[in-house]
């Protein structure tokens, strides 16, 4: 991936951090964005220590003005954008009967609208070189596979929307030389999952459905990001990849 420029949203920790490090390890120049840019700095330093090139920006993916500003800066600095990993997302559990309109809107705005805004802007840049890779992060809890999450109506709706949106973008962007794919992780040990305060019995119940009998690691998702961002994935678009320890097979 030497010479390629990759942008990873929600990159200060968890899967975003892991994806950024993995892309940098393959020679990509990596732009990290997050709502908290200061927390991205250690990741940038880690990449630079290993001889890579990276920079970070504060960006609220649900704010189009901020998205455009950051993308403008990236193009100004690097001259192009080749890879987008739409990783930013939130999960704040709330029973459907108690959920406020504001809570619903915030999750949809970040998890779904945010991915669209970034994909739309990225595609405009990628089309200039007739080459691009957009990797949208969804979830196993996205509909049609029998995995619902109590307290996650807003989250599962947003993640199901990501898959539907990505299939359409794959069709629209194919003539532009841009491939669009989705990764839908199962139970992965990330700060977002930890912060959700999921009861131990709930997590144990989830893991009983996973043949590998353990929660996954961010580093076990990142190799798929690297593949989908590469030339080797040239004939892969519009697909959804589940990284779930065999959950859906059980």
3D structure, described in words:
This protein is globular. The protein contains 8 helices and 7 strands. The model has no long low-confidence stretch (mean pLDDT 93). The chain starts with a strand and ends in a 7-residue tail after the last strand. It is of the alpha/beta class. Helix 1 packs across helix 8 and helix 3 runs parallel beside helix 4. Helices cover 42% and strands 15% of the residues.
In short:
The chain is of the alpha/beta class and 250 residues long. 42% of the residues lie in helices and 15% in strands.
* Number of H/I helices: 8
Q: What is the total tally of β strands?
A: 7
Question: Please, what is the average pLDDT?
Answer: 93
Q: Main beta sheet: strand number and arrangement?
A: 7 strands, parallel
Strand content: 5-15%
**Rg calculated over all Cα atoms:** 17 Å
Which sequence of strands runs across the widest sheet?
3-2-1-4-5-6-7
Q: H/E order of the elements?
A: EHEHEHEHEHEHHHE
């Amino acid at each position: 991936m030497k010479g390629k420029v990759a942008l990873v949203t929600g990159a200060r920790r968890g899967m975003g951090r892991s994806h950024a490090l993995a892309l940098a390890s393959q020679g990509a120049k990596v732009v990290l964005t997050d709502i908290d840019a200061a927390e991205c700095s250690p990741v940038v330093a880690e990449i630079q220590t290993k001889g890579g090139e990276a920079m970070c920006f504060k960006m609220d993916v649900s704010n189009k003005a901020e998205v455009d500003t950051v993308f403008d800066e990236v193009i100004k600095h690097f001259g192009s954008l080749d890879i987008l990993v739409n990783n930013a997302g939130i999960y704040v559990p709330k029973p459907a009967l108690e959920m406020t309109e504001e809570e619903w809107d915030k999750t949809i705005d970040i998890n779904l609208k945010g991915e669209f805004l970034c994909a739309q802007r990225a595609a405009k840049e990628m089309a200039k070189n007739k080459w691009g890779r957009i990797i949208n992060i969804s979830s196993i809890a996205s509909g049609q596979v029998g995995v619902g999450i109590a307290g996650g109506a807003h989250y599962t709706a947003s993640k199901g929307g990501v898959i539907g949106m990505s299939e359409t973008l794959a069709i629209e962007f194919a003539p532009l030389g841009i491939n669009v794919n989705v990764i839908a992780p199962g139970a992965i040990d990330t700060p977002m999952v930890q912060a959700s305060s999921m009861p131990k019995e709930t997590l144990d119940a989830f893991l009983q459905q996973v043949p590998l009998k353990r929660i996954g690691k961010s580093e076990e998702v990142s190799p798929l990001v690297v593949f989908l961002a590469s030339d080797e994935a040239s004939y892969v678009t519009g697909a959804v990849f589940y990284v779930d320890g065999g959950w859906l097979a059980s």
